[in-house]
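Entry 14. Ran structure prediction on the chain below.
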Amino acid sequence: SLGIAISIGGAATARWGLGWARALVLAYVELIRNTPFLAQLLFIFFGLPALGIKMTAITAAILAMTVNLTAYSIEIVRAGIEAVPPGQREAGIALGMKPVKVFIYVILPQALANVYPALVSQVIIIMLESAVVSQIAVMDLTHVGDYIQSRTYRAFETYFVIAAAYLAMAIGLRWLLKRAGSRLFAGRLR
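Output, structure tokens:
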């Protein structure tokens, strides 16, 4: 996903970036991780238009989920980078590799293999958090459930089915991502 791709650059900046860039990334991570997702969603949908940045509800929902996923993933990837023994970087440099190549070909594959399960969990969490996008009139599963419940007055059955659907999606997504990870990181996943 876009959030995880951006988080790789953010994690590298948080680890090795210039002082101001590092501070900016760390401030972003702290801001997003210490505010509720719903507040972020509402700020993006209602706050940004006040600054002249207009977008559709679905665009705001996707942007909010990407912003949230990126912040959490930066910390996860940074932890993976720090878990790679320093000798790996030193060995790459000793072999004549440029620091960027060492990062891309030596450190990053090991780091991502180390934290892949945590990244999978974070993707699933953001998928489950998407249940609140109905607050800005995005037609999602929860919004449909609210509509059905308001017409039938059968709250238990409606929300039981909604919960079962989210459970099935989470289990299915975890299974797919686990299979993808076992192919991507063959022999490396812990």
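The chain is about 80% helix and 0% strand. Will compare against last week's run tomorrow.
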